[in-house]
Design goal:
This protein has 707 residues and is mainly alpha-helical. The protein is built from 35 helices and 5 strands. The protein is 61% helix and 3% strand. The termini are close together. The structure holds one DNA strand of 10 nucleotides. Keywords: Repeat. InterPro entries: PPR_rpt (IPR002885), PROP1-like_PPR_dom (IPR033443), Smr_dom (IPR002625), TPR-like_helical_dom_sf (IPR011990).
Length: 707
DNA sequence: TTAGGGTTAG
């Protein structure tokens, strides 16, 4: 290792500040891989964390200006009291302002329309018309079989689709001026517009209602809010919710849970809980839909305590979950990494008489697969077949992915054949990708190639993930000519290379030599020429560290977050396989600085640990060298040391991590480092303080110049 | 979609 590249665990740790652009000019003399706090990856550090105002800000104006106006007269004393929450309700005769009304909106009852058949037929005729021909539509309107009275018009309006027809008919009804156009007409039209994700039209209609003095009720507001939500206009959803309060209308529980979902989707957990608790304090008994909103939110934030809170609330309020709520909670428990809880909840569900549907089973199969609970997964599968529980394409594909996770090739093959013979669930690109993954990760090259050829024959579109699986498999098998062919054919068939595919090519390159390496490089050139230019830069001796840093930062900025660490790992491997050891150390340092290896080194009073589980073989070797050098200088300076040192490679249970422990072991021997594989804990290498100190002493004072 | 709210795929 170059003498200029001495790392130190303890000295010269000027940790760069992510907001300080000066950190781009890194020190070149002393690197400190093991003393950095991770810095946000380059393109994330500049972005504001949250552009949305908090709900406490949102609710402040509501609490002080709107909620207090529920009594018609403005009462300054009340406004003042509202600012002091502890002494709000001095006057017990005044009703408490609430956040929601416990009364649902009452619907007007339908009376039977004797002309229903004629009107439905008329609606069908309109539906069959070409929307683009306004004159034809207008002509059909003249054929309306009965006068467009309020009831008749409403019946037709309810039977029309898509939204263009509904809007056309609604506008026509308005021009007829046979009756005042009431709220329900707007509501029906808005619902259709929501289905077509036409928020702009919805908002225009809402403003028209305001202008014409047509009342906006809870149905109107909830439709506006959910339409805004579906169109990703969360700002508008909040705006209309606030507007509702301002007009003095209280949301009912439907509107309330709709807005809870809006805040949840904005990631505003505290605000959702604040609204939830305020609702509860107002005597609201949340229903399964409200709990589904909370459950989903806590699942998304992987918050197990939150999910437990939801379960507890449901229990204490005696709310019986329905199918959707069960599905949501199962999904949430899966995301929170609680397969045992999910299994228990599923058993409760079946025991309580709720029959699982495709979504239930998809959630559970995914959970068991990810947890590698093979026995549970297979038992569930048997129950699915025995009970003839419903299957759909997504469930089939999830089962295939589970087989991939558990290495169940024969079972996957059976399932895949079942799918080919089925009416509803013919294999699609996801199914083929799962099978390519199964054959590819099992090293079954011929079967994987056969599947690749089959895809185009059956007319299924190849996707980038399937292509990546196959290329990985061919690379491992050193079938480079096949790999190039597959890459070229995939591009011809419209596959657009993504960062994972590039990472896969880069990884193949790292263990290829000579002509093979050039062949893979030419594929990578077509997919990501900047990456190839960077590899060339690494190989040039004259390239300075500053240039490497600048270019690497540029590459990371352009790369999807999940592909950044694999890129860094592969680039380090490439350097090591080409005897560019110093470059490998520079890249590991940069990877640490840019937060690609969080927790690489952890310290407690008793133990210092090097965690290389997420590193490639070359990166782990590089990290070990860095660490040994750092420890050496600490020993030489006679500073305080813990009792135990350990390195964690992982035991290799994951299909791709096998081999890291053994290659690490070889490198430990090569460096004659004092670590031994732990007998108690698989995947751990350990050394005591004494081992380390005597090792350093035996090496003599010039170690750092010799490694 | 039949006047309003919640759930499935690397």
């Amino acid at each position: 290792m170059a003498a200029t590249f001495s790392t130190a665990l303890d000295v010269h740790c000027s940790i760069p500040n992510s907001s300080d652009k000066k950190y781009l000019k890194l020190p070149t003399k002393r690197f400190a891989t093991f003393c950095k706090s991770p810095i946000s990856p380059p393109n994330e550090s500049d972005e504001p964390q949250n552009q949305n105002p908090s709900l406490s800000d949102q609710l402040k104006p509501l609490a002080t200006t709107i909620l207090s106006n529920t009594s018609t007269k403005q009462d300054p004393s009340q406004t003042q009291l509202l600012n002091k929450p502890k002494s709000i309700w001095v006057n017990p005769t005044r009703p408490k302002p609430s956040v929601l009304t416990l009364q649902r909106h009452k619907r007007s009852s339908y009376s039977h329309n004797p002309q229903i058949r004629d009107l439905r037929q008329f609606a069908r005729k309109l539906n069959d018309c070409d929307t683009s021909e306004a004159s034809i539509l207008a002509a059909v309107l003249e054929e309306i079989p009965h006068p467009p009275t309020k009831d008749n018009s409403l019946l037709v309006l309810n039977s029309l689709r898509p939204w263009q027809k509904v809007l056309f008919f609604f506008n026509w009804v308005k021009t007829q001026k046979l009756f005042p156009v009431e709220t329900i007409f707007y509501n029906v039209t808005m619902k259709s517009l929501r289905f077509g994700r036409q928020f702009q039209h919805v908002e225009e209609l809402a403003l028209e209602m305001v202008e014409n003095g047509v009342e906006l009720d809870n149905i109107t507001y909830s439709t506006i809010i959910t339409c805004a939500k579906r169109c990703n206009r969360f700002d508008k959803a909040v705006e209309w919710f606030e507007r509702m309060y301002k007009t003095g209308l209280m949301p009912d529980e439907v509107t309330y849970s709709a807005i809870l979902d809006v805040y949840s989707k904005l990631g505003k957990v505290e605000e959702v809980m604040s609204l939830y608790e305020r609702g509860r304090a107002n005597g609201w008994k949340p229903d399964p839909i409200a709990f589904a909103v909370l459950g989903k939110m806590f699942g998304e934030s992987r918050d197990y305590d939150g999910i437990r809170y939801v379960l507890q609330e449901m229990k204490s309020l005696a709310v019986k979950p329905n199918l959707v709520l069960y599905n949501t909670l199962l999904e949430a428990l899966g995301k929170a990494g609680k397969p045992g809880m999910a299994r228990g909840l599923f058993e409760n569900m079946v025991a309580s008489g709720v029959t699982p549907d495709e979504k239930t089973l998809t959630a559970l199969v995914k959970i068991f697969g990810k947890a590698r609970w093979g026995r549970d997964a297979l038992q569930l599968w048997e129950r699915m077949k025995a009970n003839r529980w419903p299957m759909d394409l997504i469930l089939y594909n999830t089962l295939l992915n589970m087989c991939a996770d558990l290495g169940l090739e024969a079972e996957a093959k059976t399932l895949f054949e079942d799918m080919k013979g089925s009416e509803q669930s013919r294999p699609d690109s996801w199914s083929y990708t799962a099978m390519l993954n199964i054959y590819g990760s099992g090293g079954n090259v011929e079967k994987a190639i056969g599947l690749f050829e089959e895809i185009s024959k059956v007319g299924v579109k190849l996707n980038v993930m399937g292509c990546t699986c196959l290329i990985q498999c061919l690379g491992r098998a050193k079938r480079i000519d096949n790999l190039v062919k597959v890459f070229e054919v995939s591009i011809q068939r419209g596959v657009e290379p993504d960062d994972r595919l590039c990472g896969c090519l880069l990884s193949v390159m790292s263990y290829c030599e000579g002509e093979d390496s050039n062949k893979v490089l030419s594929c990578l050139q077509a997919a990501n020429s900047e990456l190839v230019a960077f590899v060339n830069l690494l190989e040039e001796e004259k390239t300075s560290f500053e240039t490497i840093n600048k270019e690497f930062r540029g590459i990371l900025t352009e790369t999807a977050v999940e592909a950044r660490r694999p890129y860094c790992n592969c680039l380090i491997d490439i350097c090591r396989n080409r005897n560019l050891t110093e470059r490998a150390h520079e890249l590991l340092y940069l990877g640490t600085v840019y937060g690609l290896y969080p927790g690489l080194h952890t310290k407690t009073a008793d133990e210092w640990r090097l965690n290389v589980r997420s590193l490639s073989v070359g990166a782990a070797q590089t990290a070990l060298e860095e660490w040994m050098e750092t420890l050496t200088s600490i020993v030489q300076r006679q500073e305080a040391l813990p009792y135990l040192f350990s390195a964690n490679t992982g035991a290799g249970t994951h299909k791709f991590s096998q081999g890291l422990a053994s290659s690490f072991s070889v490198h430990v021997e090569k460096l004659a480092a004092p670590f031994a594989q732990s007998e108690e804990k698989a995947g751990f290498f350990v050394a005591t303080r004494e081992d380390l100190v005597s090792w350093v002493e035996s090496k003599g004072p010039s170690l750092s110049a010799t490694t």
